[in-house]
Design a protein that fits this description.
Number of helices: 12
Structural class: mainly alpha
Strand content: under 5%
Radius of gyration: 18 Å
Shape: globular
Helix content: over 70%
Distance between the termini: 42 Å
Oligomer: single chain
Order of helices and strands: HHHHHHHHHHHH
Amino acid sequence: MIRILRCIPAAFSMYSRIPMPGFKAKDEDTQCIMFLPLIGALIGAIMFALVRILTILPAPVSVRAMIIMIVPLIVTGGFHVDGFMDTVDAKSSHRSMDEKLAILKDPHIGAFSVIRLVTAGIIALCSLVVIINLDSRASRPVYVLACGIFVIARALAALTSIYMKKAKGDGMLVTETMNIRNADIVVLMIQLIAVTALMAYLNPVHTGMIVLAFTVFTLFYRHMTAKEFGGITGDTAGYYVTAGEIFALAVLAVSALYINV
């Protein structure tokens, strides 16, 4: 129990830029991936508050959406986006598997990653504009579901990092997952089930679409990482979080537009 409680500030220290006064990290604190969803909960809570606040301001919906878009970058420092860009660069190189793994470590970015990031940003922005622009009676449940997406993405990123084959026998991801205990999995699953159940209570149809989106994306991710890299890495985990969130937001936006519930 003491270890689990200590992992909460450790997770915020590792996976976000939120300061933890008085907290001094130890070697074992790198194995706190089961609380990665809490970072998504914080992002979702801030986004929810901003949506409520910005509705009373005379700002265009597009401006509100752009403000909300930067919340994950501020909270996390954008390290998941860095993994997304590295993964896209390596995947787009069409080189051997070993060379792709080397590209993942390269601190430089290529044109493909910039193009894909801009494209992903446009999709995310359009999705948020649609979600925020819904009528007042339907908007509250929908943007609450959008906030929940950030929790689900990190919970599933943690689970895939634990259970899927690693591309390498070393690295930060291996360190984070090598001594995961059954209790850690239980804590992680409780967070995932709790947020999904809350979302389903608010709107079961749209939540079902989000779950379907993540199921499809996870299958794609497993196939892509096995084919391109021989397994997953810390960078591909960042890809999962970033691309998975955007894909789920897009599915939610389309679902909210065309399915009236």
